[in-house]
Amino acid sequence: DAGVIQSPRHEVTEMGQEVTLRCKPISGHNSLFWYRQTMMRGLELLIYFNNNVPIDDSGMPEDRFSAKMPNASFSTLKIQPSEPRDSAVYFCASSFMITGGQPQHFGDGTRLSIL
Amino acid sequence: EDQVTQSPEALRLQEGESSSLNCSYTVSGLRGLFWYRQDPGKGPEFLFTLYSAGEEKEKERLKATLTKKESFLHITAPKPEDSATYLCAVQAGTGTYKYIFGTGTRLKVLA
User: Fold this and answer.
1) What's the CA gap between A95 and A56, in Å, rounded?
2) Which pLDDT belongs to residue B95?
3) Average pLDDT score over residue span B16-43
């Protein structure tokens, strides 16, 4: 089975530009998570969806960040305008969650560099 | 406040030298505790789920255990290919059921 697929794997862009990260979760999973990983702060949850509905977006750093899940097989994380401090590795993960206790499965991330 | 603390931050072992990694947690209503392995340039790879105190899981040279306050990942006779960052996460049983990750232990096994 295909795992979680993220694109692009690397993105380098200049400050102020719009950045869109994409994620295809594992087929059959009903929950999708966006994380940001840095050396200083580790893995931080940005937002998660259950059945395509945003459940917890308390980790979204500011209004420049937005996420959508238009259907069960696709999600985007958008940063507009981007800033150098947004540079990090962004991971998408999915799981099949009903009552909790199910593991998440991660993609290989998008390494984002904002110049 | 729900939180996860891992120790040590980094660990260097000689090949064959067994050791343990620690994950201490405080969470309301634990739904599950998860161990992951992360290699450079890759996403975290799921290893184990533990649900209740006293539970143990094993996979090759790895064994995970759980108490009411902490979990240990025991590595028996490690090999250089076990070198990676090991992450612990908990899922809270109240609120939004979100997962909370520790900052990981960077393990280096020397040949």
Assistant:
1) 15
2) 66
3) 94
How close does chain A come to B103, measured CA to CA in Å?
A: 5
Cα separation of B3 and A27, whole Å?
Answer: 31
Q: Which residues of B touch A99 (CB under 8 A)?
A: 31
- E-strand ranges in chain B read 3-7, 10-14, 19-26, 30-38, 45-50, 56-59, 62-66, 70-75, 84-92, 99-101, 105-110
The verdict on B49 touching A (C-beta cutoff 8 Å) is yes
Using a CB–CB cutoff of 8 Å, tell me whether A55 touches chain B: yes
- The tens digit of pLDDT for each residue in B66-108 reads 999 999 999 999 999 999 999 999 998 766 678 899 999 999 9
Mutate to test the interface with A, among B98, B100, B105 (most CBs of A within 10 A): B98
Contact status of B34 with chain A (Cβ, < 8 Å): yes
* Contact status of A47 with chain B (Cβ, < 8 Å): no
pLDDT along chain A (115 residues), means of 10: 92 97 96 94 93 92 94 97 96 88 94 97
If we measure between CA atoms, which residue out of A94, A91, A90, A92 comes closest to residue A50?
A94
Band of the pLDDT at B1, cuts 50, 70, 90?
confident
> d(Cα A40, Cα A87) in Å, to the nearest integer?
12
Residues of chain B positioned with their CB less than 8 A from the CB of A55: 96
Residues from chain B contacting residue A107 (CB–CB below 8 Å): 43
